[in-house]
Fold:
Amino acid sequence: MENNRSQFEKLVATHLYCDHCGGSMPVEEVLLLILPDGNLYEYRCLHCGKSVGEKRERG
Ligand SMILES: [Zn+2]
Structure:
């Protein structure tokens, strides 16, 4: 079952709504902050480079 983990970690490419582009756009996940209780990620639109969202992930 451990082989499934790397597969899951590759599943980061996603689409989010971007205000600037006016629609659902592909985004990249950027590590913003390393916190004591997890990491803070930012989603950036691949088209215009603007931040379109954040995600907190427990470490
Ligand atoms: Zn955009």
Notes: Helices lie at 3-9. The two ends are 20 Å apart (CA to CA). The longest helix spans residues 3-9. Strands lie at 14-18, 23-35, 38-45, 51-58.
